[in-house]
Amino acid sequence: MIDKDFDLTRRSFIDHVLKASAGAGMAAAAPWAAFAASAAPGQKDRVRLGVIGTGDRGRTLIRNIAKTRNCAVAAICDDYEPNLVKGRALVPGGTPAFADHRAMLDAGGIDAVVIATPLHVHAAQTLDSFDAGVHVWCEKAMARTIADCSAMVKRAQDRRKVLQIGHQRMFNPTYLNALKRVKAGEIGPVTQIRASWHRNTSWRRAVPAGSDLERKINWRLYRDSSAGLMTELATHQLQVGNWFLEAPPTRVIGSGSICFWKDGREVYDQVALVFDYAGGRKLVYTSLLNNARYGCEEQIQGSKGTIEPELGRIYQEKPPGVPALRKMGEDVQAGRKRPVPIGGATWFPELPVTTPGESLGWGEYDETMLQFEVFGEAVRSGVPAPGLLRQAYHASVTSLMGEDAMDSGRPVDWPSSLVDI
Amino acid sequence: MGTRIELHLFGTAEDGSMIEARRAIEAVDDALTIHRPSPTTALNDSLAAGSPAAIDDPLLFDALVEIDHAYQAMEGLFDPAADVSTGGAGWNMVLFDREDARIRALRPLALDFGGFGKGFALDRACDVLRRADRVSALLSAGESSIAVVGEHPLGGRWPFAIPHPLQPDRILLELELEDSALSISSTVGEGTYAPDRAPMIRPGDGTIVTGRRTAVACARSGARAEMMSTALLVADGDQAKRFLDGEPARRFLFDFTGETGISVPPAETVIR
């Protein structure tokens, strides 16, 4: 794609975001969307970002940062040399590279950091960055513990710095349009969300023979460094659940197990949880790593219809009418009277609807770019985009309370000691 | 009911009667369903436990009165009661006291109104429309249960054509209705192939009806049309003849046993 095409696509994308965020109730439900769509970042004096972590995800972020109009990678950092080498290949020659994030912070020359490291070090790197006077964009989930999530929020507030977490669905126009249609009452009151992220993969990465890097490379598989499916996958969808149900859950019950991949890992390879929300509403969540049939989806279910944003479809509960009877109505309108054929199917099993539904509209785009442009504008002004951090904080807490419920085998209530945002 | 209901009103502008008719149908569903808690499931709990029960719900009471009356008239061939252990039918094991609105069973039983509920619901909706002076309306419950109010909007009777269940491009039967109801019951055809659909059970001995039949019944009441089409479907030769002889223009039974998709004139298959 040439630059002009890309710019047109970007304009179209932002135009869609703007349209989606203009609906009734959207200003309160997605206040960052209007901020994002109306931002007009210039191309000069780009915000200088130091990227901590240049593994697969970090390098994807570097590519997205390069598409923005207001951000540039000014330094990179990784304590695993092979990743740092790959990171260097994506940035201009001479870009400073570090093996330790504190050295990068001490060197200066950056306005903010982008953290794409294992979960358990997010909090320390974030706090160090705030103490060094720079803003922070951090990958989801926020941190390994709820206490660490809260500490990150508190330190951002104390230092008056921007803390933004990578929940890109909040910038996705399909999700925004889905929310707009929910707000317009198209699927009736939402009473249940059924969400799943099913993959068929071990999640295990190859470790160099003879090395002691197992826990470093496969950090997602060990409890010290990850809550597994809950923090790496579920947190995205739990954010969507909280967003569409307009509040965090009140309680969760759950069960997790290492059922298929009995390879020494410590985190569950399948989880099933029920999150309670005010008014009896529920989010039913499953994730597993040995069957991909049902993939990744959030089924947002109301009394009048269902939205599946990953598929980009909306389905109405009311089935289409009987063709013969519809034709009879047309005949009457036209003054024709003829026999009405009847006697077809008499019984409709309550099976999954196989009708295609309707498109929610709007094609693919990498919304990660837009969230970096928003971050860039927030760093320039020193004011975070409204609503984002609250969504992310609550999503991380939701995923971690789910882990707690599975580990303890008991219902876990929403914590009462969170930081106000 | 697991059935799609359609209401088509013609003539005067909508006056709220459509909504009232819909609510009448929903009220019947709420009272008679066995797929979620309802007065009927509460009654079934009592009957299964061998306990007497008071019928407090007026719709359930009316339905039981209708069934109790029809059970005798249809020689026991429409039977909504099933023995809990054997699955065999058994309204004759039910003691229904209309005066005191109480019921009990001589052995553990459960009620399943099945298609009767569709006709009964259409009757209630038709009553609403007639009270609202609607002069022309068609109501459909899953296409196998039809009721019409008044004349066709273009005048005269409502014409219907019932397709041949084995050869959908052929017409099995054409008939006309006015201010009455129609029910089709069949052991063959597209609608009978739904997964997990329960087979038709013959009251009395509890055997499955294996014959390939389609029965059609017309009546002023949708509930009675439903019960009669069911009774015709399970009737033996003598019973069917008695029912058909009484109403030759309103009851029909087609037997496709042995038919393998070869065209057979409908007249040759009507048992009369």
Automatic annotation (TrEMBL), chain A:
Pfam families, per the entry: GFO_IDH_MocA, GFO_IDH_MocA_C3
Signal peptide start-end: none
SUPFAM superfamilies linked to this entry: Glyceraldehyde-3-phosphate dehydrogenase-like, C-terminal domain, NAD(P)-binding Rossmann-fold domains
Domain called Gfo/Idh/MocA-like oxidoreductase N-terminal: residue spans: 48-167
InterPro entries with a match to the protein in the record: Gfo/Idh/MocA-like_OxRdtase_N (IPR000683), Gfo/Idh/MocA_oxidrdct_glycsds (IPR050463), GFO_IDH_MocA-like_dom (IPR055170), NAD(P)-bd_dom_sf (IPR036291), TAT_signal (IPR006311)
Protein name: Gfo/Idh/MocA family oxidoreductase
Domain GFO/IDH/MocA-like oxidoreductase, first and last residues per copy: 176-308
Organism for this UniProt entry: Allosphingosinicella deserti
Superkingdom of this protein's organism: Bacteria
One MF annotation (Gene Ontology) recorded for this entry: nucleotide binding
TrEMBL record, chain B:
Entry annotated with the keyword Oxidoreductase: no
Keyword Transport attributed: no
PANTHER family assigned to the protein according to its UniProt record, in alphabetical order: FAD:PROTEIN FMN TRANSFERASE, THIAMINE BIOSYNTHESIS LIPOPROTEIN APBE
GO terms assigned for molecular function: metal ion binding; transferase activity
InterPro entries: ApbE, ApbE-like_sf
EC number: 2.7.1.180
Cofactors, names only: Mg(2+)
The entry's keywords: FAD, Flavoprotein, Magnesium, Metal-binding, Transferase
Catalytic EC class: transferase
Catalysed reactions, as listed in the record: L-threonyl-[protein] + FAD = FMN-L-threonyl-[protein] + AMP + H(+)
Superkingdom in the source lineage: Bacteria
Name the UniProt record assigns to this protein: FAD:protein FMN transferase
Organism annotation: Allosphingosinicella deserti
